[in-house]
Design goal:
The chain is about 40% helix and about 15% strand. It has about 450 residues and is of the alpha/beta class. It folds into 2 domains: about 190 residues, Aspartate Aminotransferase, domain 1 (Alpha-Beta Complex); about 260 residues, Aspartate Aminotransferase, domain 2 (3-Layer(aba) Sandwich), CATH 3.40.640.10. It starts with a helix and ends with a helix. It binds pyridoxal-5'-phosphate (PLP).
């Protein structure tokens, strides 16, 4: 019984990313890590609390620049993960300059005061939505932005229930894991927020019930069925694109969901914390869907890969919580973070990054589709802009996930200088910096192909 339980936990644990306790990881460490790095890893493991997905760590970094991270042994890795903070690449000189300048001027802005960079950032972000979302509130982490969005939805609607996707992730705090749907975060942790209802995410490739019948449970009809039985929903919250597994719902799905939210008086919260600011070839990821959310959560790359920055954008009509603390975070109007964000947005605009992402994204997707035609292990290739997922299967007919193979490819790729993460156990999640060159992209694709062949 215990073995069966462990087996379930081990499988479930891989939903958000490759885990840090595996034989393959141990092997990689013993083959690649020298004594000096090992000593630091041991100190890290001694002083930090251990948790899945991070400590114990597998390597120690020394520097990062452009598309690369460099470890203590001087090895460079093209970084296709970067926790999605590296839209403009690491250490972009203009971001660093803006941060240094701001540090010299006003490094912190206490409550009761505001500052010019924070005001300019709120203005710029709302302008980027063409005024559709014209009110902002910042926070120092994505999960806090999600928490603020959930609170605002309660205040606006006078309701508390939510609908969200199974397999989703919206941050690691208790409120965010309640709407998230990954067992790694919601198991063995006690009661979560009441009224957090989950539905299966839409997927063209995979039926999440694990059989090959179309269940219809990921359909809008099923969501309406839930709304009919629990009409007092405050908000539907989802990522416009489920970034880790690169699930891209159709425009029809979003338009249908927008109508359902309107029909039942629920707010639509879109969480594009990892996908905002150009990742999809659009400044905001939801733009591909043609709908406007009621609340948009942004973060990660917003801080230029340097400062933790996140926030919500919403409509003026929802500015109704003047007497309640929605966020009240110490670093709410962080001038240094705002300077980093403004510099990041300027780079995206000046370097024409959205156009580049669209073109390079289409080319990359085509290259991966060509690989898929040659390599049976690739069951599906999906992507939009420079957000790509390569789903590995043991058998194309049964779609049995190729989890072990995915992990082997990850460690082989690391040895060849490419870093990325695995999601859902069998999806290679590929998120290069948006400043990546076609040559670097080609190199990454060749490394993945070589690793597949070596299997
Ligand atoms: C979709 C999504 N929402 C929220 C978060 C939480 O952001 P943070 O880690 O800044 O709290 C993440 C982080 O990975 C995310 O991917």
């Amino acid at each position: 019984m215990e073995t069966a339980n462990n087996d379930i936990v081990n499988k479930a644990d891989k939903t958000e990313g490759d885990v840090n306790v595996s034989q393959l990881r141990d092997n990689w460490i013993s083959e690649n890590i020298d004594e000096k790095t090992k000593e630091l890893l041991e100190l890290d493991a001694k002083y930090f609390l251990h948790q899945s997905l991070s400590t114990p760590c597998m390597n120690v970094l020394e520097s990062c620049e452009g598309s690369y991270i460099t470890d203590m042994q001087g090895r460079k890795y093209l970084d296709f993960h970067g926790n999605n903070v590296h839209q403009v690449g690491y250490k972009h000189p203009k971001v660093i300059e803006a941060v240094k300048e701001q540090l010299d001027k006003l490094p912190f802005s206490p409550r009761r005061y505001t500052n010019e960079p924070a005001i300019q950032l709120a203005k710029k972000l709302t302008e980027l939505t063409d005024g559709r979302l014209n009110k902002a509130l910042f926070a120092p982490a994505g999960t806090l932005a999600v928490g603020m969005a959930l609170k605002l939805a309660r205040i606006v609607t006078g309701r508390f229930k939510t609908i969200s996707w199974w397999d989703s992730f919206h941050g690691a705090s208790l409120d965010s894991i309640s709407v998230g749907g990954e067992s790694l975060f919601i198991s063995n942790i006690g009661p979560l927020l009441p009224g957090a209802i989950h539905v299966p995410p839409p997927s063209e490739y995979r039926n999440f019930l694990g059989n090959d019948q179309t269940s219809g449970m990921d359909s809008l009809e099923y969501i309406e069925y839930v709304f009919k039985h629990e009409p007092d929903i405050a908000a539907f919250i989802a990522e416009p694109i489920r970034y880790t597994t690169a699930i891209i719902p159709s425009k029809e799905y979003w338009q249908g969901l927008r109508s359902l939210c309107d029909k039942y008086g629920a707010l639509l919260i879109l969480d594009e914390i990892p996908t905002c600011l150009g990742r999809t070839g659009y400044m905001f990821a939801h733009e591909y869907s043609g709908i406007t959310p009621d609340i948009l959560c942004i973060g990660k790359g917003l801080g230029g890969g340097v400062i933790p920055m996140a926030g919500i954008l919403t409509k003026e009509e929802y500015d109704v919580a003047g007497n309640i603390a929605l966020g009240h975070y110490t670093h709410e109007k962080n001038p240094v973070g705002a300077a980093a964000s403004l510099a990041t947005i300027k780079i995206i605009e000046e370097e024409n990054i959205l156009e580049k992402v669209k073109t390079l994204g289409e080319w990359s997707l085509h290259e991966f589709k060509c690989l898929q035609a040659k390599r049976n292990i690739i069951g599906d290739v999906r992507g939009i802009g420079l957000l790509m997922g390569v789903e590995l299967v043991k058998d194309r007919a049964t779609k049995e996930p190729a989890n072990e193979e995915a992990e082997k490819i990850l460690y082989k790729s690391l040895s060849k200088g490419l870093s990325f993460k695995i999601s859902g156990g069998n999806v290679l999640t590929l998120m290069p910096p948006l400043t990546i060159t076609q040559k670097e992209m080609q190199k990454a694709i060749s490394i993945i192909d070589e690793c597949i062949c070596e299997l």
